[in-house]
Design goal:
The protein has 124 residues and is α+β, with helices and mostly antiparallel strands. The protein is built from four helices and six strands. It binds zinc ion (ZN) (2 copies). The site of one zinc ion has 8 residues, from loops.
Amino acid sequence: MLCPKCHAAMEHVVIDNTQVDRCTECRGLWFDLEEHEELKAHADALDTGDPALGSLQNAIDRIRCPICPGDQLMIRMVDPKQPHIWFESCGVCHGRFYDAGEFKDFADFTVAEWFRSLRSTPRP
Ligand SMILES: [Zn+2]
Ligand SMILES: [Zn+2]
């Protein structure tokens, strides 16, 4: 599989019996359907790229799905809870591509939210 952004080769990274593809150049990450949710706890091990480089990759936002036939154009998405995270999603296979640093950012927020929810108290 080739990176949908920079077209370098992607390597298989297996974590928790799930295989993710990571670009050997820009370190972007490809997740098949729902894998990004299942692997949040492993974000540090998966997302090893430079976030500064990753944010530059946001400029490349018209990319084609690396899996679907027929050069399926991916949809440009914004994370609803963290609007600074821009990622691409395929409307057909629902795979997602995160630039370097974005997956860690996505996963971190969830943990922070969870701690905040422990401290919250019901309104009188
Ligand atoms: Zn790449
Ligand atoms: Zn697809």
